[in-house]
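@channel sequence for tomorrow's demo:
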Amino acid sequence: MEETGLRTCVVLQPGYLPWLGFFEQINRADEFVFLDDVQFDKHGWRNRNRVKGPDGPQWLTVPVRVSGQGGPPIRDVEIDRTQHRWAAKHLQSLRSNYGPCPFFDWLFPDLERALHQPWSRIVELNYALTELLCDKLGLRSTFHHSTALNVSGDRSERLVRICRAVGCNHYYSGAAARDYLDIAGFERAGVTVEFQDYTHPEYPQRYGAFVSHLSVIDLLFNCGPKSADVLLRTSAVRSFPSPSKA
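structure tokens (generated this afternoon):
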């Protein structure tokens, strides 16, 4: 950290094979909290992401059971085991699209082992894949689950309490939260706030013009052990000015 004494907390919903910016936030976190007890967003990133094929971006979607359940929390969402070939289809897509990449054999066997496990809930799969991808990137943090922290409150108040529960005085937030975070509430609790302002890097990529905001596995297949250097080389952050100093 640039300032002595800061301990940084990041709070994100678990995602399936997340994009580069997700891992840039993990890199900044002393304590990383998976926000797993909020409502599952059916058309979000909890069970799907994009990879690149010869015709452009392609979706990889894990089938889940949410119909008729009244908006379950992420932690309770089950993988639809009746669609038992979803993992084989994802792996075949990765073979077809990334087989010729220089680091295919460096990553694919680990993904294959992970996807072939008999996961019952999407969070279990996402936790395992996130830890696998962090290992490949050489990133380290301490992971927590919001369910286990048992912290209540409205959106901003709860985030402040999560930061305090894991012993952090600095909150590193995704950019989208600029519109709703109560910065003054963080300050009153002695927690400073910083927003991610991630500039997506370009790197060698197959199939024509570069496409950004894909799953991080696109970077890993193409750049291998150098992926972390690529992921972090253009990262930038912006501190939110205190209302009293703005």
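heads up for whoever presents: Residues 8-239 form one domain.
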